[in-house]
Amino acid sequence: MKAKRTIPMALLIAFAMQALAQQSPPVPESSSLILTNAIPLPNEPGRIDHFALDPAGRVFVCIVGNDKVAVVETFSGKEIYSISVPRPQGAVYVPEFGKLFVGSRDGKLFIFDGTSYKLTGSINFFGDTDNVRYDQAAKRVYVGHGDGPDAGIAAVDPRTNQRLEEEYKLGAHPESFQLEASGQRIFVNLPDLKRIDVIDRKAGSISKWPMTKYQDNFAMALDERDHRLFVGAKTPARLVVLDTNTGQVVAALPSVADSDDLWYDAEYRRIYMPGGQGYISVFDQIGPDRYKLLEKVPPSLGARTACYAAKIGKKGAHRFFLDVPARSGRDAELWIYQAQESDQRKLLMVQRPEQWQRCGCPISRF
Questions:
Q1: pTM
Q2: For 74-128, where are the E strands, in sequence order?
Q3: Per-residue pLDDT for 358 more than 60?
Q4: Staple partner for 265: which of 28, 53, 185, 270, CB 3.0–4.6 Å?
């Protein structure tokens, strides 16, 4: 008769854990953003600021520390050109005129040909020139510029490269601002004054919304359909949601710290908020007044600027672009994520379709 062999308890626990691991699928790094590419930006140790997208597949990255705008081709995954610009901070590409507009911390707006990258004009605003936006309906480029009493939002004609008479003085340097596509308002973050200014371009009036509880409001995005404005506050670190009809705060959620960009995804009803703390806060818009943190996507420390592109064409994909600065042993990179329906939303649509439909969310894709 053979003697019984006893198995140590620690080994039994190890076997059990291994069996559970084999039965359960691995947990994905992210269920809402899938990293599809990391394009290297070699020899770029300088600070990376905002950037612009060309629907044809180019990304224009403002690298403040290196006095340049890197032109990255997403299809080949390479930096194809370098445009010399002193301390570039923000840019917008206007496809219908084939022009790139770049704001400089030195106080100028530089205008480049979108094919040859040659300088075709410049406008001196005599003060910190930062965020740049394009209003396709009005055919105007809007520029945030200056410090102090003369700071504000100015308009430029993209056809002629000339500054227009339309201008709104705000009394402090404007950070991120958003334009209504179906209306006439411009929402502007003014962190130095602890407020948001709302410009009515038709009436020429300016409303002032205080931001004293949630300060250092730098990042901003707009959900025009639901009349919601999303603001990234740094002190304390919060995603703040305001009603654009009243200016009242309807929600405030803890978020990643040190955010400089904020993007609203109307397709999946999500808000993407990268931050220098080292991750992307992804928020789920359950309804106009209901939000929750969906997940924290771990990118890299210091990655605070980003851009979002909705699907172009039937075969396109919703993409989120993130600038990752150089870190120990690795070059700076442009990370490209593909947005997809999160696992939590898929589960809700299957288990509680009536609740999903009450949110006004599309269900036809599944």
A1: 0.85
A2: 78-84, 88-94, 99-104, 108-113, 119-124
A3: no
A4: 270
